[in-house]
Structures are given as C-alpha cells and as structure tokens.
TrEMBL record:
It is an enzyme of class 5 (isomerase). It comes from the Archaea. GO terms for biological process: D-ribose metabolic process; pentose-phosphate shunt, non-oxidative branch. Its EC number is 5.3.1.6. This is Ribose-5-phosphate isomerase A. The gene is rpiA. Substrate binds at T34, G35, S36, T37, D90, G91, A92, D93, K103, G104, G105, G106, K130. Pfam families: Rib_5-P_isom_A (PF06026). Transmembrane segments: none annotated. Pathway: Carbohydrate degradation; pentose phosphate pathway; D-ribose 5-phosphate from D-ribulose 5-phosphate (non-oxidative stage): step 1/1. InterPro entries: NagB/RpiA_transferase-like, Ribose5P_isomerase_typA_subgr, Ribose5P_isomerase_type_A. The active site is at E112. GO terms for cellular component: cytosol. Belongs to the ribose 5-phosphate isomerase family.
Length: 232
C-alpha cells in the first residue's frame, strides 16, 4: 500500500513514534493522532498492551488511526465517554523552536486539534526534517464545501496562495473524514503564528486550520541513526 495510510520506512519517524509509545502507562486513556509517524506509535502501543497486559483505551482522530488501532489490538473509546485524556501522541508537518506546529498534511487536523486540547499531555512525534527556525509550510485549512469561494477570496486578500487539495486516487477534491474540503494556503514565512491562527479562525466557513500554538508539551524528534531527542 502506498501513501499516508501506510508506515513509510523511515528510521527517524520510527524512533520518535516508538519512544513516545513508551510514555503510555497502565490505566491511561490516550489520544492517537494520524500520519506515518504516529503509525509507529500506534503499532508500539498495541504491542505493549499485548505483551505487558496494559489496561489502556484510545480515542482516534481519523479513519486511518481507527483502522491502525484496531489492527494493533488497542481498545477504542470516545471523547463522549472520556472527555479528558491522559496523553495524546501525534505527528506534525512542521514545528518551530517555540513548539508551534503546522498539521493537517493528512487532512485530519480538526479532530487532532480537538483531541490535543482534550489531553493533559500532548507529545508531538517528528523526524529531523520537520523542525524549522520559522514556520513556512503551507497551512491546511478544512472548509465547508459551501464556503470555499468565500474562504479562497479571504485568503487571497491576506496575501496567501490558496489551493483546494486534489485527491490522488479519486477524481476531484480531497473530502475529509468530516465531509469537508481542504484548502492548502501558502503564506510564505509565518512571522506570527498566533496572529495568523486568529485571522483564519475569524473567516466564516472555516471549520479548523492546521496551526497549533501553545498546545504541544514536548517534542520527540527521531534521527536517521535511530536515536531521538526530546525537547520542550
Ligand atoms: O493530518 C495529518 C496530521 O496532522 C499528521 O500528523 C501530519 O500530517 C504529519 O504526518 P506524518 O507523520 O505522516 O508526516
């Protein structure tokens, strides 16, 4: 299987994901993010639950993490049953040294943000390629299909180059797990992520944008040699 539904063979992603899975303790209710790095964490959490007979339940953030968690034998629960989580493990597309992040490369950032904000501890798992002095990755934005032209126009007025994300193995746009569209907006270097986040949140029709500020507690950054650094 190709693409984001499958773990890629990347030792940096693997070491970060496996290390973060080591934070899971017996009795915890955890959040499971989406993406190729989190996939390693999900697999390791499942292995630990099985081998150490841990009593752990998870809330997922996408169909991808749901399918991976079921495959790994992780019991699932929901935010309705457990509105407060002990630990959330999730990837990121780019992170700066102040722990601001851009997420949503897999179109899952809306649920990922809800789960991150519902968790006492949010650990981001990345490889070295994701760390940047300043955020300059395009910002994924989930929008109601009805509002797409209004949102595109607002983003152009903000100086961005927005594009509706196109599907790869389907004709037409990506449809998110929530039935919406994704606009990827290139704002060049983002000098003030908090300001941009507020401006985007104010546009009618935007369900959620992929800028995460003040949410990450610690980064686990895997390296090519199979080791990892952590910083907060
Ligand atoms: O929507 C997807 C998520 O925000 C992912 O966590 C993010 O795109 C990073 O994914 P990956 O670990 O595959 O690079």
């Amino acid at each position: 299987m190709k693409g984001r539904n499958k773990k890629t063979s990347d030792s940096g992603k693997e070491s970060a994901g496996v290390a973060a899975a080591g934070l899971v303790e017996d009795g915890m209710i955890i959040g499971l993010g989406t993406g190729s790095t989190t996939a390693y964490a999900i697999s390791e959490v499942g292995k630990r639950i099985n081998e150490e007979e841990l009593d752990v339940q998870a809330v997922v953030t996408s169909y991808q993490s749901e399918m991976l968690a079921i495959d790994a034998g992780i019991p699932l629960t929901s935010l309705s049953e457990h509105p407060e989580l002990d630990l959330d493990i999730d990837g990121a597309d780019q992170v700066d040294f102040e722990l601001n992040a851009i997420k949503g490369g897999g179109a899952a950032h809306t649920k990922e943000k809800v789960v991150a904000c519902s968790s006492k501890q949010f650990i981001a798992v990345i490889d070295e390629s994701k760390l940047s002095d300043k955020l300059n990755h395009s910002v994924p934005v989930e929008v109601l299909p009805y509002s797409r032209n209004l949102v595109l126009q607002n983003m152009q007025n903000m100086g961005a180059e927005p594009e509706i994300r196109q599907a790869v193995h389907k004709d037409g746009p990506v449809i998110t797990d929530n039935g919406n569209l994704i606009i990827d907006a290139d704002f060049d270097v983002i000098e003030n992520p908090n300001n941009l986040a507020s401006e985007l949140s104010a546009i009618p029709g935007i369900v959620e944008h992929g800028i995460f500020t003040g949410m990450i507690d610690e980064i686990y950054m895997g390296k090519k040699d199979g080791t990892f650094d952590k910083f907060k």
